[in-house]
Amino acid sequence: MRSTRLSAVKARPDLIPRTEVLGVSGSPRKNGNSDVILKSILAGVSGRNTDSKHFNLTDMQFQGCIGCERCRKDKICTGLVDGMSIVYETIISSKGLVLVSPTHNYNITSWMKAFIDRLYCFYNFDDDRPRSWSSQLAGQGRKAVVAAICEQKNKKDMGFTIEAMRLPLEALGYEIIGELSIFKIF
């Protein structure tokens, strides 16, 4: 099944996304604030007759990128076979993406960082140095929302949580249509 899925992706690198939204929670606390916020955002999407799916990264067995670079040739991660192998298909077919992470030490959680790092396989690199790059996901009208939850009172205490999600998604070609920073809840 894995080779069939990867073959389909390789055969159609320009897969046009459906009107589906994928929600991803990076919180280690099941049904915690991140999950509540994610489900609330997706409820708004569902109210517009758009299908949505969501999952919590802590429910998946996966690891961060190992830098094997096999994705440069294969155009999808083939260096690791884990929970992300299944998620790639949903990312490709989704027009929207919602990422939610609590603030851990001024940043996103380690699960969200590993997830974002595994999106590296969607970049195309030239051979010249320094390498110029493009994204397989760009130019397809993809949109994203990023949300962060922080126990403290101010933006400084949230640190880089929003930026750590927004910047990689922008580089991948997503238009960030919403940023939500929530303070003073645990």
Overview of this structure, please?
- This protein is α/β, with parallel strands linked by helices.
- The protein has a single domain, classed as Rossmann fold.
- Helix content is 34%, strand content 25%.
- The chain has helices at residues 2-11, 33-46, 70-74, 83-93, 110-117, 155-158, 161-171, and strands spanning 18-25, 51-56, 94-102, 123-125, 133-135, 143-150, 175-183.
- The strands form 2 sheets. Strands 2-1-3-6-7 form a 5-stranded parallel β-sheet, sandwiched between helices.
- Residues 1-9 have low confidence and may be disordered.
Report the top-level CATH class. Answer: Alpha Beta
CATH H-tier superfamily: Flavodoxin domain
Looking at the structure, the CATH topology is Rossmann fold
* Order of SSEs: HEHEHHEHEEEHHE
Tally of distinct domains: 1
Number of strands: 7
> What is the radius of gyration computed over CA atoms, rounded to a whole number of angstroms?
16 Å
Estimated share of beta-strand residues: 15-25%
Order of strands side by side in the largest beta sheet?
2-1-3-6-7
Helix content: 25-40%
Helix/sheet category: alpha/beta
Number of helices: 7
Q: What is the CA–CA distance across the termini?
A: 41 Å
Shape: globular
What is the CATH architecture annotation? 3-Layer(aba) Sandwich
